[in-house]
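Weekly structure sync - notes
Attendees: PM, LS, DV (DV joined late)
Agenda: review two folding runs queued last week.

Item 1: First target. Sequence and structure tokens pasted below for the record.
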Amino acid sequence: MYIFQRVNLRVVNTLNIVYGEDKTIFDHAGLCEQIWRNMGKIYTEISVIEKIDSDRINIHNEHYLLENSKAGQPTIFLFAHLGNWEIISRAIQKHDFMLNVVFELLPNRFHRILLSIAR
């Protein structure tokens, strides 16, 4: 079924805690599939992150970003973790911002090494 059966079991147990009897086992299986599909997309993007064209990323209200960049003002960016936010950081860095990133340390050594290279 899944290569990471222990991790998948943890995902299923977490879904049981969060949703309880509100969702069926089939709902949980569908959610697990979405989680693994999302993880696959993120790791695929990370493997080619240097090749992703940051010019294709649209930043709404970019004029505020440019004003702060030209003035040398410190700026705080908050990114919703709805996907691979490492990509948006590449778009911001082209405006000469030096980024300091705060993130939760991942417990999985493989994930930690892979993502620290991309960040």
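Item 2: Second target, run right after the first with the same settings.
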Amino acid sequence: MLLRLGTRLRAAGRHLLVGWHAWRDPALAWPGKLLLLLMALYLLSPVDLVPDWLPVLGWLDDLALVSLLLPVLLRLLPAEVLRQARRRAGLDPQQQEQQGPT
């Protein structure tokens, strides 16, 4: 169970990084930027579905949002914007193949 949680946390971090780079891409239209901005505002706002002052439970809604909803939101972005964001985040599989194993 803890191994799966660690995997989810790493994936959430990668998705956040890709989302950040996608948001900064000038080719992304305003609806995509708006969706990413709304998600960021929810994560940063003091208003949550479950209050953050509840130990662990307060963070689970944020983790669920990032690990379940953000990948879906990223898939809705244009393919070229998503590819460029993954490349900038260092997650492009073609770039990793060219560099070879580290």
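Discussion on item 2: The two ends are 29 Å apart (CA to CA).
Action: LS to circulate a short write-up before next sync.
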